[in-house]
Design goal:
Radius of gyration: 30 Å
Oligomer: single chain
Shape: globular
Length: 710
């Protein structure tokens, strides 16, 4: 009954739960729009009828069921609309088209191209089809493409294609991530096939221009290098300037949330603006202008930061709080959170799958609920230690609510986050206030260079402290792998244990312990599976050869990657290592290693421009250099798998005469002509042929394969 009373007290919590359930259902199950509309009309009509004719409240249970079903169906409808939009856009994939496009995201300079996001209209038969959808675009790198800005309108002839999905085991699904942002297509635009035709002075263009101007001012004030990159990320939401090294430092120390503009930054802006407008709040007639100015400042900051979900949520929430203060109706914070989520999901239901959106709402909820309880565990009289304890309690509350999700997505946990936040949160506030003052001083032509040096020093101190904390040997636990089921179990444990602390009833403690045992059992089963695994993988990495032999927690990588490349951090390999619990890695680079390698049950040796490898009783050979008659086995050699690299041996008959094998794998280091040759012989070969560049990574469970072969 207390829970039902809570839901009545916070109506938007009652709405958001079935609405999110409906969105998650609608993402995975498609229904026709007509059916959804008819269903909603019938359910809504029945709900209204029950509401007005239930005078004795005898049908409360029916009203409750109908209420939840209406919002579940509404969530499904909103999700289905977005899914249908994405499917409609996909009809333009694999087509050459003339497009009229607006640049809506600042360009990012890459090694061989210039990347950005376009809002596209298709032109057919000389007329523009008003069907605006977004496309990730990569321009051929030249002086013109480098100068593209948000708001530029271009005309281009290009080839649109669907964003490719992951082609390696456990690889990050960039395609799915972009679909959640309603982006399904990508294109590469050559220098000769586009021209700039116009400039659209949209709010996004204005915000981007302000970001560029502020970034320029920071540079003029003497802020350089990593300090400039951190200041830009902290105040403008621009993380393009951050080096991989500085990003890793902030992640390892638990301060990554500082670089991602979020509720903390919006809260600082809200407090700063409120204090600057104190003279309006004193006047009875000044309250409304004060509220309008605060709201404009909040949303202006959100626009400059690119309207990220966390910033939009925070700006909306503080707006509701400010309006409530003006009307002398302080809003309930939980209702605020639910209302903000509901409104944002109405605009884009796919935001529910966005990690930033999830972490943002969980962190705020955790801070609101757990922080007072954690803070009250200790009573400190002295003001300075009490302030430090407040910061620690905020950090602990946020981590308590978000830890499993962070681990599930990023596979690491910063153990010293509480220490980092003691100085990082106050410094972040000082830096944001300092950045505002620096801009004012620059425009007033006051001694901004001197103040710029002070701000640069504060940023240097922050970076130095972050560097020192991440350098502690136990500052971060890496390569943690937990499943989605385990993440769900963590939250069930947390909820059940919290209810036990509130209600002091043993049944909730039993529930919490039961969920904990289930969590541990799943973890134990996962460990057993990892310890007994044995597999071979040929990765799909463009123009490269990467073969992995895995036995338990040990892996040998046979590669031609540059020696400086860290396999554990490679985009296509990192998640594979984490998900398979691999702890010991040996990189055998066949281009510069001629000796043998022996590790556990795995053996690799180089002989006559070929690599022979063994994984238990599984044998294979990699041909990576042109081989002649005298380098192939004189009599047919029996192996389980042959891998061809670098366009060698294009004659199937030549191989079949010298090998008896189960599989022949053509890796992505081969060119298109070579692939076409093998594709033509694919059905005629006595081997099972796998073309990695077309079919994705080749992955073989060695244990199951040997069982089936015997």
């Amino acid at each position: 009954m207390q829970f039902l009373h809570l839901l009545r007290h916070y109506p938007f919590i009652r709405i958001i739960i079935p609405f999110i359930t409906g969105i998650l259902t609608g993402i995975h199950f498609m229904l026709s729009e007509t059916f959804m509309v008819i269903m909603l009309l019938i359910l809504s009509g029945t709900l209204i009828f029950v509401h007005f004719y239930n005078s004795a409240f005898g049908l409360r249970w029916l009203y409750g069921i109908l209420f939840n079903v209406v919002f579940i169906v509404s969530g499904m409808a909103f999700a289905n609309i977005n899914v249908h939009k994405n499917k409609d856009v996909l009809r333009y994939s694999n087509t050459e088209a003339i497009i009229q496009a607006e640049v809506i995201k600042p360009v990012v300079e890459k090694e061989k191209s210039i990347g950005t996001l376009l809002r596209v209209n298709i032109i057919m038969s000389g007329s523009v089809i008003k069907e605006r959808f977004r496309v990730t675009a990569y321009f051929e790198k030249d002086d013109r493409s480098k100068k593209l800005r948000v708001g530029d309108v271009i005309l281009a002839k290009t080839y649109l294609k669907e964003i490719p999905g992951p082609t390696n085991p456990h690889e990050f699904n960039y395609k799915k991530r972009m679909q959640w942002k309603n982006v399904c297509l990508t294109t590469y635009i050559k220098s000769s096939s586009w021209e700039k035709t116009d400039f659209k002075n949209s709010p996004f263009a204005i915000a981007a221009a302000i970001r560029e101007k502020l970034f320029e001012i920071y540079g003029k004030c003497g802020i350089r290098g990593d300090e400039l990159a951190v200041l830009s990320a902290l105040t403008l939401g621009n993380k393009d300037q951050l080096s991989d090294e500085i990003t890793q430092y902030y992640a390892a120390s638990g301060a990554m949330h500082i670089l991602a503009v979020s509720g903390l930054h919006v809260g600082i802006i809200y407090i700063l603006t409120s204090r600057l407008l104190f003279f309006l709040r004193r006047n009875r007639w000044g309250k409304i202008p004060c509220t309008i100015i605060i709201i404009l400042c909040l949303w202006s900051f959100a626009a400059i930061a690119g309207f990220s979900p966390s910033v939009s949520r925070a700006a909306f929430m503080f707006m509701v709080i400010q309006i409530g203060k003006t009307l002398k109706k302080p809003p309930e914070i939980y209702n605020n959170i639910a209302f903000s989520a509901f409104v944002l999901l109405l605009f884009n239901p796919f935001q529910i799958a966005d990690v930033g959106f999830q972490l943002s709402f969980l962190a705020v909820t955790g801070i609101v609920y757990f922080q007072p309880k954690i803070y009250n565990l200790l009573y400190i009289r002295n003001r300075a230690p009490d302030y430090l304890w407040q910061l620690v309690s905020v950090s602990l509350a946020a981590q308590l609510a978000t830890a499993p999700l962070t681990i599930g997505y990023f596979h690491y946990f910063p153990t010293l986050f509480w220490l980092t936040n003691i100085f990082v949160i106050p410094l972040a506030a000082i830096i944001i206030y300092g950045a505002v003052l620096l801009v004012i001083l620059h425009y007033m032509q006051l001694p901004y260079l001197f103040f710029g040096k002070i701000l640069n020093f504060i940023l240097t101190v922050q970076n130095y402290l972050i560097f020192k904390i991440q350098g502690v040997s136990f500052s971060m636990i890496e390569n943690i792998d937990i499943s989605a089921v385990q993440v769900a179990l963590y939250f069930l444990i947390l909820i059940a244990f919290t209810l036990y602390l509130i209600k002091k009833k043993g049944k909730w403690l039993i529930c919490s312990l039961s969920f904990s045992l289930t969590f541990l059992l799943l973890h134990l089963l996962h460990i057993i599976k990892i310890e007994n695994q044995c597999q071979m993988v040929v990765f799909n990495i463009t123009n490269k050869t990467v073969i992995s032999l895995v036995d338990g927690r040990t892996a040998v990588f046979i590669t031609d990657l540059e020696q400086k490349e860290d396999l554990a951090e490679h985009f296509s390999i990192k998640n594979f290592i984490v998900k398979n619990g691999i702890k010991q890695i040996e990189n055998y680079n066949f281009k510069c290693q001629a000796d043998r390698l022996s590790l556990k049950n795995m053996y690799v040796f180089n002989a006559k421009n070929s690599i022979y490898f063994v994984n238990g009783r599984f044998t294979g050979v990699l041909h990576y250099h042109h081989v002649g008659e005298n380098t192939l086995p004189p009599t047919p050699l029996k192996v389980n798998c042959i891998v061809l690299a670098n366009n060698v041996i294009n004659d199937p008959g030549h191989i079949e005469a010298r090998y008896i094998a189960d599989w022949l794998v053509v890796d992505p280091s081969n060119n298109r002509r070579f692939y076409k040759g093998w594709h033509a012989h694919e059905t005629d070969s006595s081997f099972k042929v796998h073309l990695v560049a077309g079919a994705g990574a080749f992955r073989l469970n060695v244990i199951e394969f040997l069982k089936s072969a015997s």
